[in-house]
Amino acid sequence: MSRPEMDVASKPVSEALPAHAGTAAPAGAAGTPREATGTAKALVKGLALVDLIATGGPRRLTDLVTATGVPRGTVVRLLEVLVAHEVLRADASGHYDLGPQLAVWGQGFLGRLDVRAQAADLMRELTEQTRETCFLGVRRGAQVLYIAKTDSPQAVRPAAVEGSVNPLHCTGIGKALLAHADDEVVRDYLAGPLERRTPNTIIDAQALAAELAEVRERGYAIDEIENEEGVRCVAAPVRDHGGRVVAALSVSAPAYRFPREEMPGVARRLLAAAATLSARLGHRAPQQTEEIS
User: Fold this and answer.
1) For the HTH iclR-type domain, which residue ranges apply (predicted)?
2) Which of 61, 85, 99, 100 has its CB surrounded by the most CB atoms within 10 Å?
3) Could you count the other beta carbons within 10 Å of the beta carbon of residue 249?
4) What integer is the mean pLDDT of 178-199?
5) How far apart are CA 33 and CA 181, in angstroms?
6) Radius of gyration (Cα) for the chain, nearest Å?
């Protein structure tokens, strides 16, 4: 492996968003009115422009007009407002890209995720103990969203960044989250289709259901080179004060540096860290005494 980094979770969040036709609002946006009018309609159009750029990268004015079907004059006015408020920025070549205000909002969102702040020292400790990369993730629809990361000190390490996403069924964190999701969520997910990422990816619904049952029984999840070639991962669920699984911690590493026989030992450390983090979120549970194998 000659590359200094490996893409473990390289899909940006924007790649997971559905394409929006015309002036439709972003799918799943809370409180979006069925029939927006007036100022609300302009807001929906402006959000559609931002989403197109977030999804497809920098765009020219003509590209945005074509993609949205919105009149050129309207697009120009919306872009002026968005640039003025630094939601977007324009470069000398006439391309519009995401602006610094989005970073402020994004950090504000992440900063309000208490689990992230509570996990920081535990993640650093896991990385110090294992010398591998530790991730913290939450479920975002049918995907795992990575909200924090501590890098391995070694040269070859995962290249994922905070804000990256991956499918639930082929990642350690994703399986840990899906295994403890509501029955309806699991049923809908198993209905597929299940994307194949590597030859090891589980794409059969019955096999995945069995795998999730094993995750619940074992207490932790394994990504056996199922999402990224040459990468293994172990993950443990994190619970809140009500006992709900709200996040998961993982340790991820190149497979040549993370043999199968070392997984149980890493899992013990992960389960201990996840239990501590859960306790910080108000969860109270009996101490686990079962042997991990």
Assistant:
1) 40-100
2) 99
3) 29
4) 95
5) 28
6) 21
Instruction: Label residue 162 by pLDDT band (50, 70, 90).
Output: confident
Which residues, at least 6 apart from 53, have a Cβ–Cβ distance to it below 8 Å? Answer: 59, 64, 88, 96, 97, 98
Nearest residue to 166 (alpha-carbon basis) of 245, 233, 262: 233
Question: N- to C-terminal Cα distance for the chain?
Answer: 29
Amino acid identity, position 265? G
Cross-strand partners of 154:
none
Cβ 100 vs Cβ 89: under 8 Å: yes
The secondary structure of 111-170 as a DSSP string is HT-HHHHHHHHHHHHHHHHHSSEEEEEEEETTEEEEEEEE--SSSSEE---TTBEEESTT
Cα 25 from chain centroid (whole Å): 22
Model pLDDT, residue 292:
53
Q: Left if phi > 0, otherwise alpha if psi is -120 to 50, otherwise beta: which for 175? A: alpha
- pLDDT tens-digit series, residues 250-272: 999 999 999 999 999 999 999 99
Q: Per the structure block, which two tokens stand in for 149?
A: 């990361």
Q: What is the pTM of this model?
A: 0.66
Residue 247's nearest CA partner among 268, 208, 273 is 273
In whole angstroms, what is the distance from residue 249 CA to residue 88 CA?
33
Distances in Å between the Cα of 58 and the Cα atoms of 24, 84, 104 are 20, 17, 19
